[in-house]
Design brief:
alpha+beta; two-stranded antiparallel sheet; about 15% helix; elongated; binds zinc ion
Length: about 160
């Protein structure tokens, strides 16, 4: 068994299921804790709710102190298949491909892109709330600022069932 790549002392036994283990349990815990702290900097707020669909805004504390959304997520649930389809649109207000180094006392071990940290948040928080059997996600990196159209009323469509 090889030594842990971080502390170089304890035998490496994690991650499980890989042909070559790289970390000892102690350093692995530290790594996971750092990841959780980074995930905590994202905040997801639900802004729209329908029976089978919800829309969320994504905030990150590094962008204007979390005051302006950095992306939006739409989740649509197909009841028949019990499948959740997630679409994430990430604004270029934040550099999503920028990676965060996870630093141990012994030095830098790995880098994780912001986009992967957000996907971790979606998988840990948003998707389980749907309790669906399966899910897929499509992520779009948007360029430029989004724009909105104010609420507009539509004349109701003629009801073809009322007249015989
Ligand atoms: Zn170690």
């Amino acid at each position: 068994m090889s030594a842990c790549r971080v502390c170089n002392e304890n035998p490496a036994s994690l991650p499980e299921g890989l042909p070559e283990a790289r970390f000892c349990p102690k350093c692995w815990d530290t790594r996971l804790r750092q990841m959780f702290m980074e995930e905590d900097r994202f905040y997801i707020q639900r802004v729209f709710r329908a029976a089978d669909a919800e829309k969320y805004l994504v905030y990150h504390e590094e962008h204007e102190g979390g005051g302006t959304a950095v992306g939006q997520v739409v989740a649509v649930h197909d009841r028949l298949a019990d499948h959740l389809e997630v679409s994430a649109f990430l604004y270029d207000r934040m550099s999503w491909e920028e990676s965060v180094p996870f630093i141990y006392e012994q030095g830098v071990e790995c880098e994780v892109a912001m986009i992967d940290i957000l996907l971790g948040v979606l998988e840990a928080e948003l998707i389980p709330s749907w309790r669906c059997h399966s899910w897929t996600a499509e992520v779009t990196l948007c360029r430029g600022e989004p724009f909105w159209i104010d609420s507009r009323d539509r004349e109701s469509a003629p009801d073809i069932d009322t007249e015989e």
